[in-house]
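Q: What does the assembly look like in three dimensions?
Context provided by user:
Components: four
Sequences:
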Amino acid sequence: MVTLKHIAEELGISITTVSKALKEYPDVSKKTRKLVRETAAMLNYKPNTFAVNLRTKESKTIGLIIPEIVHHFFSSVVKGIVSQAEKKGYLVITLQSNESYELEKKQLNLLANKRVDGILISLANGTADYKHLKEIIEDDTPLVMFDKIAKIIKCSKVIVDDRKAAYKATQHLIDIGCKRIAHFRGPLLPQNSIDRFLGYKQALTDNNILYDSSLVYLLNDMSFEEGKLYAKELLKNHKDVDGIFINTDLVAIGAIAEFNNQGIKVPEQINVIGFSNWFMASVISPSLTTINQPGFEMGKKAFKLLYKEIRYKKEKRPFNYKEIVLETDLITRESTKPLPF
Amino acid sequence: MVTLKHIAEELGISITTVSKALKEYPDVSKKTRKLVRETAAMLNYKPNTFAVNLRTKESKTIGLIIPEIVHHFFSSVVKGIVSQAEKKGYLVITLQSNESYELEKKQLNLLANKRVDGILISLANGTADYKHLKEIIEDDTPLVMFDKIAKIIKCSKVIVDDRKAAYKATQHLIDIGCKRIAHFRGPLLPQNSIDRFLGYKQALTDNNILYDSSLVYLLNDMSFEEGKLYAKELLKNHKDVDGIFINTDLVAIGAIAEFNNQGIKVPEQINVIGFSNWFMASVISPSLTTINQPGFEMGKKAFKLLYKEIRYKKEKRPFNYKEIVLETDLITRESTKPLPF
DNA sequence: CTGAAAGCGCTTACAG
DNA sequence: CTGAAAGCGCTTACAG
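A: Here is the predicted structure of the complete assembly.
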């Protein structure tokens, strides 16, 4: 491997001058700069990043922890992060927590040991304790949370207003005439599922619809299978339900599959609205009305915040955490339709 | 940040001994080792990876280039790679080429400059020239290709037998009684689409069905929209087609959407088989018969090959490239059904 | 405009 | 069993 030393020897000048020339320092003569540049190109010189990292104490690499890679929303976020990072010359190391608190701690540790310049994280459902996050922040490593966040942790965040979005979804069901509205919610832990539930409840209250807790089903792993399972359950106990707001598209797609199986007509007999706008939602039959969650944009914004924090801390400028709330849209498709008055 | 020096000073011993003690060298007394270990834990010592990298000339980091992150097959591969890498203490930097040759070159360069220990790559459709890959190999950086490969490049590979799999898919259509079988193929470039086309053609020939080139449609971006578009085209020109083998699930799902739109019954009027087994294929209606392509396993295997190459090269042991061909399965679903003789 | 020197924080061959 | 010293390949403050 070619080093600065090789170039210096080749030209009979010092390593110092070569280094400065390559960085276009103005205190090196134009002539020398040109000569060095050409020799470096000729020898196919590539700076040794390991040495650069050690000297500059930066690696131009950030870490990313997501609960699950094979997931349309998260892969969109990853894409947003990677594309934005690239623009600023950063590379991204991706790890997944598999929705496990223990794994999340482990991965965070790996990244801290690796000394990445900053970390982006979306929490696992299993994460209730935030000590590991606090440690990172106290270590002064820039940390930005997105989507699944811990409200009480002080750091920058990028989220959607889940409560408002869920309200919007539920209001849509009410607007088209639904009276008995069920809700499949996520587990007790991630802030998301709490907020979406609260949005659902609030919409009912604001429209003078009695909240009936027996219409709220608490799911665990939020899978396609669970969607089928709870749809079956719902049909068994609550034949009168005319609308359902489901926490996430995958589960909604499972529920619709079960409704289809049992010959229950969507939307005629039951209106279904999901959450997230997975690509899949647009191609199933009936296509799924849902709330669009801008994953790609969330990734971009999250990286931008992180980048800013990295720059500011590096330059020891005062820095304030920021919380960005992205807009969500209602995407109306075939699975909801105004009821005959 | 705590360094070896801090620990050494704390204990009044040399940096050398601390370093060796932490690595459990047997030539350090048990007592000293214990003392050092405890002090390191107490001070929350973390080895500076930048320095370690510089010394050992390894970063325990590999690079991964895929054409597209938001893609069920590739995200499964990523998951397989990341999970396997983790087991061996490696981290993964992911980049995407967006199916562009230029971008692919750039990303490969970024990774080379970063001095990752090895690189995993699935080629962009646009890649026809392999100079960038050869350079990496000549640089002695371990490189493993998977899924979309260049046959003539000498390196380890993990693939499926696309030709055989396509043959299997086409044979299935023939077995259920199809006589006029169309094919939506991918662009001319990636080896995949050539092989799948050849498998299709071979199956026809072996079953004494005349190959009709007008039944083969060459698509470009392999999107849902293109599936709809070419399905429309097919219906316009070839009403007699009773079966179609489509290069990839997403396109097949688009085609089915178009058939549904136009009231063409799948499978009664036309049998459809896809390729890849995206999760989506199982939830659409009718669900899609397809060829399962084991993404997760491919990722795991690809990393294992890369890891082995890294180890062998590091130890300067002789090393032979290996090509692993993974099995594919026919997944029969609703979109194909035996024709009434 | 150029260069000698220190130092980033490790690892390891070598001496004792 | 312990440690002084060299070196990985850069960057940069400082001197001239």
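Follow-up: The mean pLDDT of chain B is 94.
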